[in-house]
Design brief:
The complex is a heterodimer of chains A (398) and B (385). Chain A is of the alpha+beta class and 398 residues long. Chain A is 44% helix and 15% strand. Chain B is 52% helix and 16% strand. Chain B folds into 3 domains: 113 residues, Acyl-CoA dehydrogenase/oxidase, N-terminal domain (Butyryl-Coa Dehydrogenase, subunit A, domain 1, Orthogonal Bundle); 105 residues, Butyryl-CoA Dehydrogenase, subunit A, domain 2, CATH 2.40.110.10; 154 residues, Up-down Bundle (Butyryl-CoA Dehydrogenase, subunit A, domain 3). The chains are: A alpha+beta (398), B alpha+beta (385). Chains A and B meet through helix 8, helix 9 and helix 11 of A and helix 7, helix 8, helix 9 and helix 11 of B.
Chain lengths: 398, 385
């Protein structure tokens, strides 16, 4: 057991650091708010990485993965976090793609994977429904066979960034008479430009437009767009959720966030002294950083198990629960740190093109919306309570 | 980066686990704890025979060429079995001082005896009014010819009733709480002027109040340089923290397992209580605390060799996390066992008690939170300048 990096790994770190410094898009540097980006901004770094062959490090090499070891992937995420890089969105690269290359046929792999790698096509996830959140198996959206097509009817919700999506992967009920709710579901790829699809924005408590309702009315999709076998979609959906969890800890990004928090706390003033000198506040940062260290080493142990050939197991639920708790506490402490300047609502103020100064320090502007927005993290990706159910069943055996 | 154990470490773990399973079951432990001496010298000898005491030392020092990771493996098993014998005081602390700063002659005389099990050390660092500050010493050592004369009162010296040698920290200069002027001595427990009051601790071990009254020691009793003992003490205490964290990890794992098992069997309202989601989620939280404690123990152990600030931060972070996790896992174990958890008869309460007392060894959560925060502030300041 040791924490040393090999000379090759040290050289690798230098290589990726240099690449990031030279190629990370200038316009994305120091962007505070992440959900207000344009489609091009979201994709800018993804496209650079696609050209370099680095957009999907975790994929098997034959589909375009990098063949990096788990340590190299750890270095990669650390180096990207240093510049707070806008990484490729997960819906294509880490969610639908593993399902396609694991369960899809050769035509599907050839058709979809290259455009996910390059960032040319944007994917969204059609899982949740108004009546199916944590209880995902109760999906009601139907796909009825009509010759060479499925006809899809229903409503999806919480569909993240569907307003930009070219494609979506949808869970649809193909056998309404199945004995169990988990049976009779299929995993279907849908072109978002197909007639009958309507995307309606949901504005969240932070004021952002990140999620949507997707209404599907007589949407005709070729049968060849189904991945794997009919009625076996639940298996693929669960597989996807396990993959979704493994990147969710966000350790490197939270480290960067703590650094930012320390900077804010050394600028803010309490009784004429930097806030960071206040023992009460400083210890909250310490506690957060200590818990983040525990998470980091838990993730490293998980990565080590993975690279020993044991795929992401139910342990990855710990990463989801603890990772999101830490992200939430970080946004909470940041809001606390900025004090009363967390209050001004900066949406549309000052107006674009006006030369008025914004209210309060720059670092305060997004602190409240970000805190509001991050309440989502313990709800999405299988709520933290669902993660506890998974551990109960898979690890405690109760 | 590598998280695998070596073949030697795995062998130590397996043979120690077997020995504890066969000869250290809970009933036997209970009888030993209640016996006059409170430990089994013959068990201690068997641990020595297994090579446990040699494992963490270099081959140059006559050890097996291992290090803190080997101590970690040993202490995790000790934690699982609630072993009371003093591996941390004698091997990690006593051996640690000698390993880092002992002269060739001191190593020859004392380290060999520790590794062979012939000599047992205890670490007399705490004082009645020093709390967890290793530099807050009222014990003095005054130069007397080539040697020293020691006076003072050392508090709750774990394992002292079983020890023949004490490591004593004392002031050779400076004022109370100064970082300079601290020295480390080896004191024979049988020396003139050493008196002890021995007593059992609430978690099944034995400790002493140690009184030093004009105790004369030779120049060869001093470990390291006179007046420059604090960095050495901090190094050894950080190693002891890592080993104690490993013990807590072992104890937490068993307390959690026992609780899950109990929840399977115990029925209320016609259902095993393990079917109740409110209890399931609490047991999952215990599982997560345990897993994170394992991670922190690896982290702190692996960082013992890094530069001073990194090492100290790692040890303090681990001790904070383990203090909090140990308390949580211990308390939840009792709660989920219900009334049975309150009984002396059941093992789970004894795991709870050990986990509780681990927090106060080598600095509790608050102490290490303060230390970690101060170190972070220095680091942040240095980076800003």
């Amino acid at each position: 057991m040791n924490l040393e990096f090999s000379p090759e790994e040290i050289a690798f770190r230098a290589e990726v650091r240099a690449f990031i410094e030279e190629n990370y898009p200038e316009e994305l540097k120091d962007i505070g708010s992440r959900e207000d980006l344009t489609r091009d901004q979201f994709l800018a770094w993804h496209k650079v990485l696609g050209k370099k062959g680095w957009s999907a490090p975790a994929w098997p090499e034959k589909y375009g993965g990098t063949g990096w070891t788990s340590t190299q992937r750890y270095i990669w995420s650390e180096e990207n976090a240093r510049v707070d890089a806008m990484m490729p969105l997960p819906f294509g690269v880490s969610m639908v793609a593993p399902v396609i290359y694991t369960f899809g046929n050769e035509e599907q792999k050839a058709r979809y994977l290259p455009k996910i790698l390059s960032g040319e096509e944007w994917w969204c996830q059609g899982y949740s429904e108004p009546g199916a959140g944590s209880d995902l198996a109760s999906v009601k959206t139907t796909a009825v066979r009509d010759g060479d097509h499925y006809v899809i009817n229903g409503q999806k919700t919480w569909t993240t960034l569907a307003q930009h999506a070219d494609w979506g992967f949808f869970l649809c009920r193909t056998d309404p008479d199945a004995a169990k709710p988990q049976e009779g579901i299929s995993f279907i790829l849908v072109d978002m430009k197909t007639p009958g699809i309507e995307v309606r924005p949901i504005i969240t408590i932070d004021g952002g437009h990140e999620v949507n309702e997707v209404w599907l009315t007589d949407v005709r999709v070729p049968v060849e767009n189904r991945v794997g076998e009919e009625n076996m979609g639940w298996t693929y959906a669960k597989f996807l959720l396990a993959h979704e969890r493994s990147g969710i800890a966000g350790v490197a990004r939270s480290k960067r966030g703590i650094e930012r928090l320390r900077n804010i706390a050394s600028t803010e003033v309490l009784d004429g002294e930097p806030l960071i000198n206040d023992d009460t506040f400083a210890r909250k940062i310490s506690q957060l950083e200590i818990d983040l260290t525990a998470l980091e080493f838990t993730e490293l142990r998980t990565l080590a198990r993975e690279s020993a050939g044991k795929g992401p197991g139910p342990e990855s639920s710990i990463l989801k629960v603890k990772g999101t708790e830490i992200q939430q506490r970080l946004t909470e402490l940041t809001l606390e740190a900025v004090g009363t300047y967390g209050a001004p609502d900066h949406r549309g103020f000052p107006e674009d093109g006006s030369n008025e100064f914004p209210i309060g320090p720059d670092y305060a502007h997004h602190s409240a919306p970000t805190y509001f927005n991050f309440r989502k993290t313990s709800i999405y990706g299988g709520s933290n309570e669902i993660q506890r159910n998974i551990i109960t069943k898979m690890i405690l055996g109760l | 980066m590598d998280f695998n154990f070596t073949e030697e470490q795995t062998m130590i773990r397996d043979s120690l686990a077997r020995l504890i399973r066969e000869q250290y079951d809970f009933e036997t432990r209970t009888a030993v704890v209640k016996s006059d001496s409170g430990w089994r010298p013959e068990m201690w000898a068997q641990f020595a025979e297994l090579g446990l005491f040699m494992a963490p030392f270099s081959e140059d020092d006559g050890g097996l060429g291992g290090g803190p990771l080997d101590a970690m493996v040993v202490m995790e098993e000790f934690g699982k079995g609630l072993v009371v014998e003093p591996f941390v005081p004698s091997v990690v602390c006593g051996g640690g001082f000698l390993k880092h700063a002992g002269s060739a002659a001191q190593k020859e005389e004392h380290l060999q005896a520790i590794m062979g099990g012939a000599s047992t050390f205890a670490f007399a660092y705490a004082e009645p009014r020093g709390r967890y500050n290793l530099a807050d010493l009222e014990t003095t050592a005054k130069k007397d010819g080539s040697g020293y004369v020691l006076n003072g009162h050392k508090a709750v010296v774990i394992g002292a009733p079983w020890a023949d040698k004490l490591i004593v920290t004392a002031r050779t200069g400076g004022d109370r709480r100064d970082t300079g002027g601290i020295s480390v001595f080896i004191v024979d427990k049988g020396a003139d002027g050493v008196t002890t009051r021995d007593y059992p601790t609430v978690d099944g071990r034995r400790a002493s109040e140690v009184y030093l009254e004009n105790v004369s020691v030779g120049a060869d009793a001093l470990i390291g340089a006179e007046g420059e003992g604090l960095p050495l003490i901090e190094t050894v205490v950080d190693e002891a923290i890592a080993a104690t964290c490993a013990e807590a990890v072992g104890a937490m794992g068993v307390a959690h397992q026992m609780t899950v098992e109990y929840s399977r069997q115990r029925k209320q309202f016609g259902t095993p209580i393990g079917k109740f989601q409110v209890l399931q989620h609490r047991m999952v939280d215990m599982f997560m605390e345990h897993e994170q404690s394992i991670s922190m123990t690896y982290m702190a152990t692996l960082k013992l060799g890094e530069d001073e600030v990194e090492r100290k931060k790692a040890a303090s972070a681990a001790k904070v996390r383990i203090g909090q996790s140990g308390r949580f896992v211990g308390q939840e174990s009792i709660q989920i066992h219900g009334g049975m958890g309150m009984t002396e008869e059941l093992a789970v309460g004894h795991y709870f008690k050990r986990l509780t007392m681990i927090d106060s060894e080598f600095g509790n959560v608050d102490h290490h939170m303060r230390r970690y925060t101060a170190l972070s502030a220095d680091e942040f300041q240095a980076a800003a300048e």
